[in-house]
Amino acid sequence: MRRPLVAGNWKMHGTRASVAELIKGLRQLALPSGVEVAVLPPCLYINQVVTGLEGKAIAVGAQNCAVEPMQGALTGEISPSQLADAGCSLVLVGHSERRLVLGERDDVLSRKFAAAQSCGLVPLLCVGETLEQRQAGRTLEVVAGQLGSVIEELGAGAFAKAVVAYEPVWAIGTGLTATPQQAQEVHAAIRAQLSAENAEIARGVRILYGGSVKAANAVELFGMPDIDGGLIGGASLNADEFGAICRAAGN
Questions:
Q1: pTM above 0.90?
Q2: Catalytic residue set
Q3: Which of 20, 41, 87, 141 is deepest in the core (most CB within 10 A)?
Q4: Segments making up each domain of the chain, as ranges
Q5: pLDDT for 137-180, tens place per residue?
Q6: Which CATH number does the domain 5-249 belong to among 3.20.20.70, 3.40.1090.10, 1.10.150.20, 3.40.605.10?
Q7: What span, in angstroms and rounded, lies between the C-alpha atoms of 156 and 193?
């Protein structure tokens, strides 16, 4: 039985004051015991969040990491070993904003995935298509290519200690959401692709949905057989809304 995971990606949001308020709200939440919950603050505030959430069953992760696992001469980057030292347990790899806006290629993302795992972090690999690609009927092809590049480099076994998030780019921050059936189709295809390599790994890997998830649509999305929780963007900046989404995953 896969334990649902709900992870809040705060993106480039937060000040010390607003993060303190959000921590206060998160500490007051009644969270379902059967759901794993995590938040991913900007790197500047990781220490504040780790300290502020001490004793609360909420994991802390990062939104990105360097391609090199250990400390070294890579100005401006943060290594997975430093993230682990700061108290992180997971890290996003390949969010669409980094792929499309910052030009991160599949080979770079495979290196980040491996670097994270070598330091004991769980990589949360994001995959998803643009609106243009969906309209051209290329959704499954695009997602299979993004997932396949990591499988090719590191093997399906790497997903024994990883999470996948399907985030259609056209649904991120737009208010548009894939229907539960559209999301399920892609989630099932991801699991089938992994299953073709290793059925046991495929059965165990958690696949999250992300893209304008709110408390109002979470129950229906999380009710799909291959959707194991959510990667939440804007709604994770509101503690009450985030808590409601976490409870939906526990239903």
A1: yes
A2: 95, 167
A3: 41
A4: 5-249
A5: 999 999 999 999 999 999 999 999 999 999 999 988 787 788 99
A6: 3.20.20.70
A7: 9
